[in-house]
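Exercise 7. Given the encoded structure of a 476-residue chain, write a plausible sequence.
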């Protein structure tokens, strides 16, 4: 039964994508098919989520080709995140992909937009539930293709360049995944990632580095990070989905999976992962300060926040079991918080025509949903209790302290310091944008539509309770 549910979870948005693309009534059929497909995906993801079992089903296997599904607590949680944030992104798109959008009025290409969003959802779900590396590669590349099309959606020179850069970097990084797959198949005759643990030490090291490169590219970690800020030329609901669930989180998920199943891991891999995570964290933090475009600020925030998960990956490589729980929890909690922040930014820009933080003031008086969304999203991603990222950061720090090495203690101190600085800086923008009298842009903003408000309030709720949903599942 579970294999049917997972198959439907991947197939329903794919079918919706085809319907959206070929309909002759794009504004109605594309939007409704997207809503229905994404809502059904949530329902099926919830049913799958409630099974509370590890499950594997291989439908076809011949040589390096294997088609099947694998589900455990990690994939169930990330699958749920992908489905819910996808639904919320499509909900806001009903107002955003519209001629009434003050920042980017849109009167055409509805088919293309909704078709790509649903294919993006299907591909991301397929990736996290794949039972084999070859199946993972297919979905890995499909998500890159979808992001290319969606980032380029406005077809300006900036947008087309950003889409191409995103695709090129993530595709080049994917060669690490190809190399690891080839090595594992050549050595074991299987394309199961779990066979990584049986490789000789030299081949295992090469495979681990290859898989990390693929993860860094998809997860926008240094030195592959440059594509993500440029990708902010995409429609904001696309940015929300790309950051929160359907692209960069897949890189982190792959890295966690790799370390979970690698068996004995060379110390050098843990050191390399830790060094690159720290470089990414500190470098992206310094780029918070000059940003006045809310989407650019959130882009560098995502790069920094993903480096927490990759710090967790280094702790897993050092032998911490608690870091597995902490890292998956962080993906789940941060996904809802970052999705909320981007959709709040989208609500502000479509109703007021600005993304400039200096022009956004008094949200709580004029746009209560945006004001609440901005507040909860800030608290979530900066790790304020009781929101989900607090527990993720706490468990990551405890994981580092528990290991008791000089490196792990250093990582704990760096995470605490970054959290403090990021909180202070984000608090500055929170007080400036949410409270006080409305600025001219906000005072003259249009009322938010019901779909946008629904998406924001759903993510406000989930940002608040995400840790309390995830922790019982991760402790199965």
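Solution.
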């Amino acid at each position: 039964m579970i294999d049917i549910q997972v198959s439907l979870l991947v197939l329903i948005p794919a079918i919706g994508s085809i319907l959206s693309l070929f309909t002759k009534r794009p504004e109605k059929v594309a939007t409704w098919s997207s809503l229905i497909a994404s809502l059904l995906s949530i329902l099926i993801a919830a049913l799958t989520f409630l099974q509370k079992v590890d499950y594997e089903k291989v439908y076809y296997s011949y040589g390096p080709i294997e088609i099947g599904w694998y589900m455990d607590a990690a994939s169930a949680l990330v699958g749920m995140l992908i489905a819910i944030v996808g639904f919320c992104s499509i909900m806001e798109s009903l107002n955003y992909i519209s001629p009434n959008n003050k920042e980017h009025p849109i009167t055409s290409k509805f088919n293309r937009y909704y078709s790509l969003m649903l294919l993006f959802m299907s591909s991301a779900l397929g990736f996290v539930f794949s039972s084999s590396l070859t199946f993972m590669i297919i979905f890995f590349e499909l998500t890159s293709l979808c992001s290319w099309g969606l980032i380029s959606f406005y077809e300006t020179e900036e947008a087309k360049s950003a889409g191409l850069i995103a695709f090129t970097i993530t595709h080049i990084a994917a060669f690490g995944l190809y190399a690891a797959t080839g090595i594992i198949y050549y050595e074991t005759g299987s394309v199961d990632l779990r066979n990584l643990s049986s490789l000789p030490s030299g081949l295992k090291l090469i495979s681990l580095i290859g898989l990390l490169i693929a993860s860094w590219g998809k997860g926008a970690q240094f030195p592959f990070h440059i594509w993500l800020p440029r990708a902010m030329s995409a429609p904001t609901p696309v940015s929300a989905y790309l950051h929160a669930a359907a692209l960069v989180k897949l890189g982190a998920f792959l890295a966690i999976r790799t370390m979970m199943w690698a068996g004995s891991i060379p110390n050098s891999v843990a050191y390399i992962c830790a060094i690159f995570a720290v470089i990414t964290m500190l470098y992206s933090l310094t780029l918070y300060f000059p940003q006045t475009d809310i989407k650019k600020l959130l882009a560098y925030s995502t790069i920094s926040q993903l480096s927490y998960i990759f710090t967790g990956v280094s702790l897993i490589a050092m032998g911490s079991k608690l870091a597995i729980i902490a890292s998956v929890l962080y993906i789940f909690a941060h996904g809802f918080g970052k999705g909320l922040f981007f959709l709040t930014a989208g609500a502000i820009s479509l109703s007021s025509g600005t993304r400039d933080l200096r022009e956004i003031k008094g949200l709580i008086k004029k746009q209560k949903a945006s004001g609440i969304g901005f507040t909860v999203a800030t608290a979530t991603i900066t790790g304020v209790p009781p929101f989900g990222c607090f527990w993720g950061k706490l468990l990551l720090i405890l994981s580092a302290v528990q290991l008791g090495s000089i490196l792990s203690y250093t990582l704990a101190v760096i995470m605490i310091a970054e959290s403090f600085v990021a909180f202070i800086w984000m608090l500055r923008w929170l007080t400036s944008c949410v409270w006080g009298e409305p600025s001219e842009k906000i005072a003259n903003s249009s009322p938010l539509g019901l779909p946008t408000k629904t998406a924001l309030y759903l993510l406000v709720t989930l940002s608040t309770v995400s840790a309390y949903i995830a922790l019982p599942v991760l402790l199965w």
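Remark. The chain has a mean pLDDT of 92. Students should compare their own answers with the one above.
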